[in-house]
UniProtKB/TrEMBL annotation:
SMART domains (alphabetical): Cyt-b5 (SM01117)
Leader peptide range in chain numbering: none
Transmembrane stretches, start-end: 31-57
Compositional bias segments (type: Gly residues): 15-25
GO CC, any one term: endoplasmic reticulum
Keyword Transmembrane helix: yes
Comp. bias regions, Acidic residues: 192-201
Domain Cytochrome b5 heme-binding intervals: 89-187
Protein source organism: Bucorvus abyssinicus (Northern ground-hornbill)
Region (Disordered): 1-26, 188-209
Pfam entry (one): Cyt-b5
Keywords assigned: Membrane, Transmembrane, Transmembrane helix
Protein name per Swiss-Prot or TrEMBL: PGRC2 protein
C-alpha cells in the first residue's frame, strides 16, 4: 500500500487509486452483500414487531374487552360485598368461592386463604388467572403453570417442590398478604378448623396470625 501523491492510499497493483479492485464509483464486492444482510435484518425486525403487536391486540381482545358492562357489574358487585369473617376452609369449601357460584373469589397460597374478589378482573371466571379461583394456587404460582396440571383435587403438601420453587411460593404469599385480605387457613385432611373470636376477626386481615 502506498501514497499516490494526492493524499489517498492505494492498494498495490490497483490502477484506479481507490481501495479494492472495482471502478472509481463502484462499491467493494462485499458491500452489496452486507447491504442485503442489513436489509434482511430490518425486514425480520419489522416482521417480529408486527407479530408482537398482533399478539398484544389478540390479548386485548381476549381479556380487555371482557371488562365491559358484564365485568363492570361484577366489579361493582364485588365492591359491595362485606369483609368476610375469618374462618378456615377445606378444599371442598374453598371451591365454592370461584366467582361463578358465589361472587366472592378466594384462593389459597402456601396454606393461607385470601379474598381476591377486588381483583376479579384477574381471578374471575373470565380473567387470565381465573383457573386459580376457589383453588390452591401454590403449585401453579411456584411453577409458572396456568393450566389444570397445576391443580390438585386432593390436599397438596408441595413436598415435591424444590427449594427455589418453595421460595417462590413464599414470595407469592407475601405479595398476596400485602394486597388482599387474609381470611383463614387451608385445612389439611382431618384437621379441625380454628374458632376465631370477634377480636381476632377485627384484626388487620393482611397480617398473618
Amino acid at each position: 500500500m502506498a501514497d499516490d501523491g494526492d493524499g489517498r492510499l492505494r492498494t498495490e497493483g490497483s490502477s484506479d487509486g481507490g481501495l479494492g479492485s472495482g471502478g472509481a464509483g463502484e462499491p467493494p464486492a462485499g458491500a452489496a452483500a452486507a447491504a442485503a444482510v442489513v436489509g434482511g435484518e430490518m425486514l425480520l425486525n419489522v416482521g417480529l414487531l408486527a407479530l408482537a403487536l398482533l399478539a398484544a391486540y389478540r390479548l386485548y381482545l381476549r381479556w380487555g374487552t371482557r371488562s365491559g358492562p358484564g365485568g363492570a357489574a361484577r366489579q361493582s358487585q364485588a365492591a359491595a360485598l362485606p369483609r368476610m369473617k375469618r374462618r378456615d376452609f377445606s378444599l371442598e369449601q374453598l371451591r365454592e368461592f370461584d366467582g361463578a357460584r358465589d361472587p366472592r373469589i378466594l384462593l389459597a397460597v402456601n396454606g393461607k386463604v385470601f379474598d381476591v374478589t377486588k381483583g376479579s378482573k384477574f381471578y374471575g371466571p373470565e380473567g387470565p388467572y381465573g383457573i386459580f379461583a376457589g383453588r390452591d394456587a401454590s403449585r401453579g404460582l411456584a411453577t409458572f403453570c396456568l393450566d389444570k396440571d397445576a391443580l390438585r383435587d386432593e390436599y397438596d403438601d408441595l413436598s415435591d417442590l424444590n427449594a427455589v420453587q418453595m421460595e417462590s411460593v413464599r414470595e407469592w404469599e407475601m405479595q398476596f398478604k400485602e394486597k388482599y385480605d387474609y381470611v383463614g387457613r387451608l385445612l389439611k385432611p382431618g384437621e379441625e378448623p380454628s374458632e376465631y373470636t370477634d377480636e381476632e376477626d377485627t384484626k388487620d386481615h393482611t397480617k398473618q396470625e
